Every structure is written in C-alpha cells, then in structure tokens.
Amino acid sequence: MATGQPPYRRRIVDDELDALLPHLPAISLEGPKGVGKTATALQRAGTVRRLDDPSQLQVITADPSRLTEGRPPIVIDEWQRLPESWDLVRRAVDANAAPGAFLLTGSATPSERPTHSGAGRIVSVRLRPLTLVERGVGEPTVSLADLCTGSQPTISGATAVGLEQYVDELTKGGFPGMRFASPRAQRAALDGYLARIVDVDLRELGVSIRNPSTLWRWLRAFAAATATSTSYDKIRNAATGGEDDKPAKTTVLNYRDALERLWILDELPSWSPSNNHLHRLAGAPKHHLADPALAIRMLGLEAGALLEGANPEVAFGDGPFLGALFESLVTQSVRVFAQRAESSVGHLRTLGGDREVDLIVTRPDGRIVALEVKLAATVTDADVRHLAWLKRQLGSTVLDAAVITTGTEAYRRSDGIAVIPFALLGP
C-alpha cells in the first residue's frame, strides 16, 4: 500500500513567511531546484498555479488574467516559465492587492527579464538547502540570534555528533527529496541533479554549450575552490589542465552568470565594515556551491576518501579538502540562521591573506558577530588569534566571537571567545 508523501517538516524560513505574509501582498521564494520551495509554499496555498505543468502554462498563456484570480494566497510555482507573470503580479500589487495575496516560487532568473524589478512590490526570500538543525542532527544549545544581541550569553551543551556524522551529512546534502539511506542511491540522485543542470536547465536559460566537457571541467575546478577566494582566472586555468586552448573569459563568465541565475553558485561576499578602522581588505568573494554535496559529487569523492584526507587533483586551499567542505556546510547553515535574524553574512580577508575571519554576521546597525570554522575538536590560542585581533581593532562593534568546531563541548574561553560544536549551533 502506498504511503504517500512524508509529512511536511517545518523549516526555519517558515518563521519568516509567517512574519511577512500577513503584511506584504507578494513574496518571491527563491532558491535552486529541489530545495523545497514548492512544498513550503503549498503549506499556505489557497490557489496554486503550476507553470511547470504544460497544460496549466498553456491556459495561463492564452488568458494571463487567470494567473492572479483565485483564493489567496495564490501560489505561482516556477514563475520564470512565464516571465511576464512577474509584471502581472506587480500590477496586481499596484492595484492594492491585499496582504498575503501572492507567493511566487522560482528556480531561476529568466533570460527574458521582467520589465520592472518589482522593487517595493515583491519581496524576495531566499531558501537554501536544509541546515543541520532542519535535518534533525544534534540538539542546538546556542542561538546565533542570542550571539547577535551582544549580551555574551552563557555557552554550554554537549553533543555526541562527531566527524564521521558531519562527513555523512556532507555527502548526503540538504536537498529534502534527495536524502537516501543508500549511499549508491544518494550518489545517483546528486549525479542526476548535476546532469540536468548541464543538459537541460542551462540550455533553457539560453546558454550555448558547444563543448559540455569544458563546462564540466570548469565546474570541477570551481568545486575544488570551495571556501577559497581563488581568482576566476586561476579556476579557468585549472579547468584546462595547462592546455593552451583555454575557454574564452566571456565563455566562463556566461557559465558563471547562468549558474548564479539557477542559484547553484552561492558565493559569500567579502565583508565591508561600516567604518574606516580596517584598511586593505580584499574584495574577492569566497566560492561556495548551493550545497557542498554537489562539490563532492563533481569531484568524485566519497565519505571514506574524505575521512582519509583525500584532496581534489587541483587543490586551491591549504590543508585537507574536508576542512573546506566543513566550512561550506557551516556557512550554509549560518546564512540561514542570519537571514532569520535579519542579518547578512560575509567574510574578512586582508590583502595578502595575513588576517582572515571565515564568517562575519552583520546586523543592520553594522555591529557584528565573528565566526571561525575549524575542522578540529579542540581549540588553541593560535586558532583564535584572528578573532582576538578583530576584537582589538573594532572594540564594541564586535558583539561576540566564536570558533565552530567538530568537538563535543560548548563553552566560553577565559578571553571571552566562545567554542561551539557545529551540531549545537542553531538559529
């Protein structure tokens, strides 16, 4: 007997939607395919318009007025299939649509862009893959929102989650419908997801792919640069293995632009302080994919190899590649937690790389929480030197500072810097 779909498991973004929908007429829920946008939107739907259904799309194309008719909230799923739907919703908002009237979902920014950005009418909310908390891994005892208050909250708690479980989560990924107990099924699902991006999704955006093998090599090189700020020229060079016949920069830029429009690239911007107390900061973003599991599959790595210290053939960062993947996994969760707290996330790196802080969570008032990520169970004075330097430079602008680890105990050091096992960190 068929058991049907598993029950919906509430996401952190649901708190945002609950706070926004009663006050805003239109919200666009954005993120890569498979991240759970439709399932989240359907929890609130009064009417559903599925534009990825050819029959529904045909009807709406013939009579666009139907799109904005129905019991609210009207969920317009995969709106980019009919780019003019954005303008139809915007005009309905301008005509005084009630709060909670429209909820759009989109897995890509269409090639045919709307005539109006929708700024001030349609509010965008980002949905990323499942955080560790949403996967049910660990019981958080430390809240990022509490760290952002500057109250120096008590840091405590213990977890049995260790390195092997983190690696298991890295390989499974956070796409809700693609998490399987069977490693073989897991690999097949992620490989199929990546193949669809190259074979279908990019082409639907109008990207001309004359040589798919060149694109795959560039993707693998980008994956190998996870959690680094390696230049695009170096990534392009690594993708061609020293060949003289390299893809043109314009070709690579087209790849990058299209993958950003599919939300597959999720680069972390450099942090720009609101004062001039810090000088000579590098401006390059840190490279991340929507989920580090995609990087693992692009590079053909598995859990056992990662635990044994395997590195990609082309390595850009220092230390084991597993450290970069762990940082990417932490970054993914922290960005979700920060979004709920109405904060942004960046990274700090000075020119020359003599000072680096992995994650800077910035409140709207410019005050920050600084986080370092360490693939280690213990923390030494050397591990906190950049955090201590930043606190000396910025004083009370730094609300709190912490090192995120693979350890078991959460505590606050005598210098005030918190040590938090990743499984104990929550929104």
Total DSSP helices: 14
The separation of the N and C termini measures 38 Å
Query: Which structural class do the helices and strands define?
Result: alpha/beta
- How is the main sheet built? 6 strands, mixed
Count of domain modules: 2
| Averaged pLDDT | 92
What is the approximate shape? globular
Strand content: 5-15%
User: Percentage of helical residues?
Assistant: 25-40%
Calculate Rg over CA atoms: 22 Å
Widest beta sheet: strand line-up: 7-8-9-10-12-11
Low-pLDDT segments: none
N-to-C order of helices and strands = HEHEHEHEEEHHHHHHHHHEEEHEEEE
Q: How many strands appear in the DSSP assignment?
A: 13
Commentary on this structure:
Strand 8 (356-362) and strand 9 (368-373) form a beta hairpin. The protein has a six-stranded mixed sheet, with helices on both faces. The protein has 427 residues and is an alpha/beta fold. It has two domains: 12-126, Rossmann fold (3-Layer(aba) Sandwich); 142-426, no CATH class. It has helices spanning 12-20, 37-42, 54-62, 84-94, 144-147, 163-172, 183-204, 212-224, 232-239, 249-261, 292-298, 303-307, 321-340, 385-394, and strands spanning 26-30, 47-50, 74-77, 102-106, 123-126, 142-143, 344-349, 356-362, 368-373, 398-405, 411-412, 418-421, 425-426.
